[in-house]
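Recap quiz, item 2
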Amino acid sequence: MLKHNSILNLDTDERMHIGTYLLEQINDYMTHIRGVRVSPELSVDEVAEYVRRISFEHPVSAREAIYHILEGLRQYQVHTPHPRYFGLYNPRPNFMGIMADTITAAFNPQLAAWSHAPVAVEIENYVLKEIASKFGYSAEAADGTFTTGGAEANLTAVLTALVHYFPSYAKEGLRSLPTHPVMYASAESHHSLVKAARSCGLGTDSLRIITTDSEMHIDVPALHHQIQVDRAAGYTPFLIIATGGTTGAGAIDPINEIANLAEREQLWLHVDAAYGGASVFAPEMLDLLHGIDRADSITFDAHKWMSVPMGAGIYITRHKDILHRTFSITADYMPKEGVDLDVIDPFTHSIQWSRRFIGLKVYLSLVTAGWEGYRSMVQHQTEMGNRLRRELACSNWKVVNDTILPVVCFTDFNIQSKIQSNFASFICQEILRSGQAWISVYEINKVPVLRACITNYDSTEEDIMVLMELLNGARAEYLKRHPNGLS
Amino acid sequence: MLKHNSILNLDTDERMHIGTYLLEQINDYMTHIRGVRVSPELSVDEVAEYVRRISFEHPVSAREAIYHILEGLRQYQVHTPHPRYFGLYNPRPNFMGIMADTITAAFNPQLAAWSHAPVAVEIENYVLKEIASKFGYSAEAADGTFTTGGAEANLTAVLTALVHYFPSYAKEGLRSLPTHPVMYASAESHHSLVKAARSCGLGTDSLRIITTDSEMHIDVPALHHQIQVDRAAGYTPFLIIATGGTTGAGAIDPINEIANLAEREQLWLHVDAAYGGASVFAPEMLDLLHGIDRADSITFDAHKWMSVPMGAGIYITRHKDILHRTFSITADYMPKEGVDLDVIDPFTHSIQWSRRFIGLKVYLSLVTAGWEGYRSMVQHQTEMGNRLRRELACSNWKVVNDTILPVVCFTDFNIQSKIQSNFASFICQEILRSGQAWISVYEINKVPVLRACITNYDSTEEDIMVLMELLNGARAEYLKRHPNGLS
């Protein structure tokens, strides 16, 4: 019979042995990532069978288990750390971020009470204040919380805005209100807002989806009009969500203009800058989010453009007491050592209770790369995006979105004119099948186009050129098969 | 000027160098943990100053940064991995769990779409089904999702129960309902339910707090009565939450009896077994949670008694379609490769959207320790709890809670009779000041008592004896200072 301590309680040599083996494997993965297929073959049965190959009734050695997992991940995942993963906003995690998650797991600090993990809480506070300052908030007024990601940060925004406008929401709930609250976001905003509308009890009908203009920005006159319509119909508008870098096309809503409207209409303004927020790290891009300092709250995901491992979401607000009013609870079983100290227990400021030390990967990345390192990274990726646009133009592809963020949506001009709706999906499948790169399909004005985004600090001009070759090759193949496909 | 790639993009030698240094440090921490003070001195300014010693304007080397963090954590956190941390349900993380979080950070799989991380999704499905089976659910019917922790799992339970009884909740919200929903939990239940009541729009008034009996179990007749009162007043009861191992005293509600009531009253039964759920791994303890297979949903935290790093919460239900009905959304930007496959995209089943690969630490622990390893661990900790009870009795302390879980609440019988309310807090402070162990104070029937819980697979009889010496010493000191303190 296995003793409980035979594996749960490894001795020091075993830990070094296993840890070194894993470190070598991870290092090898990061070093030779360009030799790995970016996207896997998708066979449901094969993957499920692979996973179930080891039974919990018949445990295996640590080394065997690690080998099994690493082989599984190598074969069966999209390799987001690959420099030719031109995909959603999933970065190649930087090594210090990986080390931070290892430290977090080993020291396992409990971020509920300040007194339980003072250094962890203070590190998170420090990082939050610094990032708030980058967004133009005063460090004194700013408050915030780390979240699992943008979805939790956006839900936090909806809840804080509700409590701000309807103080009885927390105790008496929505049914006690004399009026029906409604909120606003664009058709290009992140769908986590739809989830937030459900989870907070308002229901998705209370989220008014505002149309966008030709460049996929929220249509401010349409937004204004909808607010009037709702007021006239007896609803109570309380929240506008602007997006600073949409998921699809990297569009940035005119934040300052929306801030003017929100001010006039006395609404809470939340800016979902989960991805695009990092542009404030590059001084020459600061104007992109002009007006964000006027937002009541902001979502920013460090696990996107800051290249730390998932999930490191951030919610920031300039209303110092609102998180407390929304989430504060006392509980008998919580440690009392901090009661007389002038500190905030994290569980009184978030949807979560006990949680991981999320902020360490951001801190450890910042203390080694510095703001200057991030400025340089943001600039590099922006340049790579511009390079991709130039190469696409040279090869007769047409970029169809307008953003300076490295998110590029494109199609073939001639083919598009005949609305060959299967063209984008054919090209995308060809790229994925090659295993050499990952791009996706996104619909703009109901036309499917191709989408490639620079998410990796290690993507180079050579990687862009490989993508171009693949794209041009796939298009040639398409034209061979559809000789009448040109306009 | 630093180049972006000088630190974000380390070369292979640097990664090995940094990684090995960290591995040695973590191994050293785990090996020599008994020599570390369990609880830190709490000086807010000192901690804040330590954290701000490195500025993001003046980055430091990777080695310096890691040294700084590790020193900070060593000095300024409660060491939950310490074998004499007799605290809240924060375990010493097992080494395979730490390795799992490192792998997760390095491979950074994105758990939103199945097609993006098939092996990760299938691993989570496998673990969920296996754990559901342990709770007596049929593997076919069971569905679930990993969460950050119990708070998110409990909120998920409230949301699924709402959607089950009020299908219009998701779209039209609470204000559209012809009736006011109310739910029930005991006074000893976890306060995350209070947060859940706020976050879902019902408001905390809708959570009826039911009194407990002398052993801190929910008072079933009182529960039944409150349901009748609410129905008579026009409210609509929809959910009972039973607790399988309360945070304070490890009390287990009579689940089967509550299941009978829930069935008669046609209410959703959720069991919060965040900590106590692991007792099903030890066959001789199975009866403790008798009836849990009848629950509509269950919360279980692998980062508690399964000794994996935080946060690894689990929500399980036997209603196969309810997560889908609660959270399913389609979004244009999500990968489409999985559309024709018979798979479930995780983001359609949870509050979160993209998220970390939470399940790996549970899988990697289970494939190496096996169910047998966990059985043995649960037994070991239960034995240590019993040992502590015996030693307390021998030294004339009185255990005041009744549970077979290793959660021991106690006081001095003679002193308690005079209701010396500062006694418990004095003893607790003495223990914490010693740096040799960590216990806490918890109020039972408004009397503060001491609470010690075995959360660590490495706590031994010697550790129990050290705690006893500290307790007896602190009591002697108290009596010296309060010579008339005895009854």
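Residues 301 and 351 of chain A are 17 Å apart (CA to CA).
The first strand of chain A starts at residue 143 and ends at 147.
End of item.
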